[in-house]
Write a structure and sequence with these properties.
The complex is a heterodimer of chains A (57) and B (390). By secondary structure, chain A is of the alpha+beta class. Chain A has one domain: Alpha-Beta Plaits (2-Layer Sandwich), CATH 3.30.70.20. Helices cover 18% and strands 25% of the residues of chain A. Chain A contains two helices and four strands; from the N terminus they run βαββαβ. In chain A, strands 1-4 form a two-stranded antiparallel ribbon. Chain A has a two-stranded antiparallel sheet with strand order 2-3. In chain A, a hairpin with a 2-residue loop joins strand 2 and strand 3. In chain B, strand 1, helix 1 and strand 2 form a beta-alpha-beta unit. Chain B starts with a strand and ends with a helix. The longest helix of chain B has 30 residues. By secondary structure, chain B is α/β, with parallel strands linked by helices. Helices cover 36% and strands 29% of the residues of chain B. Classes of the chains: A alpha+beta (57), B alpha/beta (390). Chains A and B meet through helix 1, strand 2 and helix 2 of A and strand 12, helix 5 and strand 16 of B.
Chain lengths: 57, 390
């Protein structure tokens, strides 16, 4: 439900801190959103400092 | 790496290193795991710290840590009104990559073991009690046992959540930050700047922290409800184009700073949290280095006592929560109330307050004098101040 635009991502982990369902894994320069856990709330999209996350159309 | 330790610390920032150092000094076998390839890199920090705070937390200060010594602060209101203040306490702008690396070295000198490129991907649980970590290191997945795990894994912490501690912050209580280290600019190396206003950084502020006369960390943070409409990166580009046109960029980073009220639970059975993982940064300033180190020391000492007594329950570890609350926790709670008041100010109110303060001579602009002047001349602030102190 959420797209990660890796070319913009700084791998800072701000999204991980606000995710209500603990669906996001950040490991060095990898960011993965578990689609089974993701509730699609978009908090991560809102908080991202650089616009690297998008709600899927 | 052997498979069992008294204490495993997840994260080798200042909080993790100081926890590892304190635990090792108290006779514990300690393993500190760092997910990145190199301690201290990337630097996700504006690097400002108070001199008193750093001396309190670190004991002694190494000159190699210091980029610049700060004696003054400039506040710029939305309409451009400038307030210069010369607080009693001085500040430093650090070289975090040297600083973090040195603190980790000191932990190792005290007897801790450090492993970089080691990502904690889960906790080992036994009947609800934390008894170790699962770690990905060099392409292998390892289960490492520990009597106590200390989560110092930053804003993006998951260690606490895996242990059942609720550390999630709603976006309104997280500052979404970006920073560029600019060079080829002219700045006063003895003065930090804070720029306020909804056009610059709604729900936060922009900072200019000089590293020397021609290089500075220039960044800003805005809370989540504003970051949804326009990204901090866009606000920062606008600020830099206006304030430092033509500057070159040495480094650019993003990051999140927790700015909510302090958490009441920082421990569970076999688990403790410190630093940004425990949401211990000062909610008003966003400063977290000193708080993390103080918390790390208390947590490391408490963990060592608990292991020696063989009592690893939340009850035994909660001595850390109590000591934290008595020292920095109380200050964070107070700062959170001030932040709520400041956040409620409109640009117009900030401008009026700044104009009133501009009439106070700079040498009399101690925090108390500023507060008194504002209270006397700005009735609305009295009501809001009452909220701070009740």
């Amino acid at each position: 439900m959420i797209d990660v635009l890796l070319e913009f991502c700084d791998f800072c982990g701000t999204c991980v801190g606000v995710c209500p369902t603990d669906a996001i894994t950040l490991e060095q320069v990898q960011l993965h959103i578990d689609s089974e856990l993701c509730a699609g709330c978009g908090d991560c999209v809102d908080i991202c400092p650089v616009g690297a996350l998008e709600r899927q159309a | 790496m052997t498979a069992a330790y008294d204490i495993i610390v997840a994260g080798a920032g200042p909080g993790g290193s100081w926890a590892a150092k304190a635990a090792a000094e108290n006779g514990m076998s300690v393993l500190m795991l760092e997910k990145d390839r190199e301690v201290g890199i990337p630097v996700r920090c504006a690097e400002g710290v108070s001199v008193q705070g750093l001396e309190l937390a670190a004991g002694s200060v190494d000159a190699r840590w210091i980029a610049a010594t700060i004696t003054g602060a400039r506040f710029v209101a939305p309409n451009g009104t400038v307030i210069d203040a010369y607080p009693d306490d001085r500040g430093y702008i650090l070289h975090r990559r040297i600083f973090d690396s040195d603190l980790a070295e000191r932990a190792v000198q005290a007897g801790a073991r450090l492993q970089t490129n080691a990502f904690v991907c889960g906790l080992l649980l036994e009947g609800g009690r934390v008894c170790g970590v699962r770690c990905r290191c060099g392409g292998r997945t390892l289960d490492l046992k520990a009597r106590i795990v200390i989560g110092a894994d930053g804003t993006e912490s998951r260690v606490g959540r895996w242990a059942g501690l609720d550390t999630r912050l709603p976006p309104a209580l997280m500052e979404s930050c970006v920073q560029k280290t600019l060079t080829g600019i002219d700045v006063d190396p003895g003065r930090v700047e804070f720029h306020l206003g909804t056009m610059i950084a709604p729900g936060g502020y922009a900072w200019v922290f000089p590293k020397n006369a021609h290089t500075a960390n220039v960044g800003l943070g805005i809370t989540g409800e504003f970051a949804a409409a326009r990204k901090p990166a866009d606000y920062l580009d606008h600020f830099i184009e206006t304030r430092f046109p033509g500057a070159s960029v040495l480094a650019a980073v993003a990051g999140g700073v927790p700015v909510g009220p302090p958490l009441s639970r920082l421990t569970g059975d076999g688990i403790m949290l410190v630093g940004d993982a425990a949401r211990q940064a000062n909610p008003l300033t966003g400063g977290g280095i000193v708080n993390a180190m103080i918390a790390g020391r208390i947590a490391g000492e408490t963990a060592a006592r608990a292991v020696r007594k063989g009592r690893l329950t939340r009850h035994a570890l909660s001595a850390y929560e109590k000591e934290w609350e008595k020292t920095e926790g109380r200050q964070c709670r107070f700062s959170y109330r001030i932040k709520q008041v400041v956040d409620a100010f409109s640009d117009e109110e900030l401008n009026r307050t700044a104009e009133l303060l501009a009439a106070v001579p700079p040498e009399r602009r101690s925090a108390f004098q500023i507060f008194r002047a504002a209270l006397v001349r700005h009735p609305k602030l009295i009501l809001q101040a009452a909220k701070i102190f009740t």
